[in-house]
Design a protein that fits this description.
The complex is a heterotrimer of chains A (259), B (261) and C (290). Chain A has nine helices and ten strands. Chain A has 259 residues and is an alpha/beta fold. Chain A folds into two domains: 173 residues, P-loop containing nucleotide triphosphate hydrolases (Rossmann fold, 3-Layer(aba) Sandwich); 71 residues, no CATH class. In chain A, 46% of the residues are buried. Chain C has two domains: 53 residues, no CATH class; 202 residues, MetI-like fold (Orthogonal Bundle). Classes of the chains: A alpha/beta (259), B mainly alpha (261), C mainly alpha (290). Chains B and C meet through helix 1, helix 2, helix 4, helix 5 and helix 6 of B and helix 2, helix 3, helix 4, helix 5 and helix 6 of C.
Chain lengths: 259, 261, 290
Amino acid sequence: MKTLLEVKNVSKQYGTDTVALSDVNFSVKEGEFVSVIGPSGAGKSTLLRCINRMIEASNGEIIFDNVNVQGLRKKELRRLRTKIGMIFQHYNLVMRMSVIENVLHGLLGYKSTFSGVLGLYSEEEKKKALQVLTILGLQEQVYKRCDQLSGGQKQRVGIARALIQNPKMLLCDEPIASLDPNASKIIMDYLKKISSSMGITVLVNLHQVDVALKYSDRIIGVSKGKIVYDGSPKKISEEEINTIYGSEAGELMIEVGGK
Amino acid sequence: MKTDFFAKKRRQSLLILFVLVLVCYGSIILTDYDVAKGFTSFPMAIDWGLSNFYPTEASLAKLPEILAELLQTVLVSIAAATVAAVCAMLFAIFGSSITKVNNFMSTISRGIATLFRNIDVAAWAMILLFSFGQSALTGYFALFFVSFGFLTRAFIETIDEVGSGSVEALTATGASYFTVVFQSVIPSSLPQMISWVLFMVETNIRSATLVGILTGTGIGFLFDLYYKSLNYNVASLIVITIVGAILLIEYISNYVRRVIL
Amino acid sequence: MNLEESTKIVTTNTPKKFLTAGTNRIKLRPLTKASIVVRVTLMSLLLLTLYGFLTFNYAGVGLFEGIWTMLGNFKTMFVNTHFKHFTFGTALYQVLITLGLALLTTLFGAIIALFLALFAAKNLGSSYVSNAIKGFVAFIRAVPTVLWVLIFAVSAGLGSVAAIVGMTFHSVGYLIKAYSESFEELDDGVIEALRGSGANWWQVVFQAVLPSSMTYLISWTFLRFEINFGVAIAMGAAAGAGGIGYEMFMASGFYLDLKEVGAITYFILTFAILLEIFATKIKGRLKVRM
């Protein structure tokens, strides 16, 4: 299979002494389902956002679909972003607007500023939005305001907004961190299905190791801004998980032991 | 330990009380305020009001003239708040930390708003008298400047409260800056902004009376005219119409708020 | 559910519930009461503004030439500032008088409002008394401050007494509303717990209500102080209360000295901004979100 994304020697520094990422290298193939795991504050979010340049990396090279992301100018960057869908922990929907309007927001990257500002969509596009919503089982919620939905439903709207972009890759930043186990399973199942049946590459940040092991083709372990594991979920050992989570896992053990 | 804590608290309260009394005493001296007269004037005023300050049948003849001036004053207040809201929207978008273009523009926007907000409406009226004379525009611009300053701050807070989540999401889809603003920031904050504009209209009508007295325009001028000519019957009728207008506007804006927020 | 299957269902024909009535177009949002009210409000504001601009009594002053003179005047005011009829020291003294007016009226207003607000809060008193006070207060606030001052001035004479009584009156109205709403936001559980332990009304007020709402009360009072500074300037100008407002009124209406008006404006601006910074600091320290 073809390589879709290549991250080479990427570093990110805030100010002079806070290092979020240091010398990160990895690549992702088309259609792969990759989980990035690690404790909170390890740099997972920063890593994800460097890929579509929501955060500018300080050093290194990112190649997406044979394009050097770092070198892109404003307009080209917008075009690149249309090819990368993004899903967030807090859904990041416009809560006062209807579900279908939020889904159509995924098309704004393709639009001129004029029709974007006025929110003008063609019938074809609206039909596509309905279609995506049906795929995600939201056909009854189309005209609800987003603040009336449950957490799981909100995240499905978020996925619909990303899917309508017709993306080659989805970046998911802690998609299930605010959800209950039941809703989490539904969301992860959808992401897996999107990856396997639509051939869309999925790169997902997770801090639940068990979920990552269950769904991923590959695991990338991040600790203190560095990649400490990159390989199959089947081969990862308990020891390696401990390295990724460092003292945090150790504390967890003690807590369990104490009980 | 315990007694210490309570003793310390009591000492602190006493100190604050002492400072307040001192400042209060200083202010009384400074402003030349006659405390005794203050107390006696209150029942006197009520007594006088009940026996003089009410409309008579003769004063009702002036009602059409009063209502025409009142309408003008209300329109000036609404126009000032509405136009100020449009300008404030622009400045708030550049000023808010979520939608700012760069830090320089943000500081400038906030600075201008601070300037306009902190010059009182009465001061603006006296400044603008030089440029517009006894035209309705004096009052309009005085109200406009203050509304603009106030609304810019209120709108910045509104946008900040909505949060950066949906802005981030829309930027990540590749949408341009103005598309993000119009599809995410404005729809999220519009109801709260409308609520602020309605509040501004209420405030403006109150201020407009004052501005009218200072600049000789609108309902304030009319009141001043009858007040100074000691025609308290008509003056009281004017007060009643102003109160009616303000309560009506308050009622409407409370209704709108209830439905949209 | 199979992805391909569901795709086919929708592409063939759009169910009727997704279409705008009477057309073949898919609708984007339902017409709710809220969205209608938003539109009606915006349209009314717009139309009333336009109607206003068409019917204003311009008194022969053109809008654009007026703005042009205004810009010129601003330049004279703020660039060629000078003192002629009084000195820097006098101006400072006059600002202090204005501050004094604001302080007294805020303090008097706060004390009176505190007691009345306890009875106006629905969770502390009877709803009958509460409604009576709130209705009365709404009336007090509906009368502009300047009118209260002028009404009191008839019996007390123009001067600081009328100004202070009138301004206090309006402050009381404002603060009762703010205070009683702060009281009403209190957690009912606290009051219930104390009542249950046999505390009487005054004990509940002093041990639970006031301590838990103190930060709100303080920030509302400071906000009113800020407002009263502006009102005090206005009363100096319009109701002979003295202070910097009166000086400005003289410089503007009597001496017609634009440059001196500029100097006074600088004074007002400096003190108002200092007050705003002070109030923000206090609010920040009390960690109040209003």
